[in-house]
Design brief:
It comes from Gillisia limnaea (strain DSM 15749 / LMG 21470 / R-8282). This is Membrane protein. Keywords: Membrane, Transmembrane, Transmembrane helix. It is built from 2 helices and no strands. By secondary structure, it is an all-alpha fold. The chain has one domain. Helix 1 runs antiparallel to helix 2.
């Protein structure tokens, strides 16, 4: 079973890619890039490390 961080990562990937395609050329590319990047990292690793 997938843990909560991986599910959140998949949601961030979906949200970021949706923002990228729906709001094309609206200046939200930076936000969608951050969401897709964080979602990809969290989906692969499944953990958050805070030091």
């Amino acid at each position: 079973m997938m843990n909560k961080i991986r599910i959140l990562g998949l949601l961030l990937l979906f949200t970021g890619s949706t923002i990228m395609y729906i709001y094309d050329n609206s200046g939200l590319d930076f936000l969608s890039g951050i969401l897709v990047g964080a979602g990809l990292i969290w989906t692969i690793t499944g953990q958050v490390r805070l030091k």
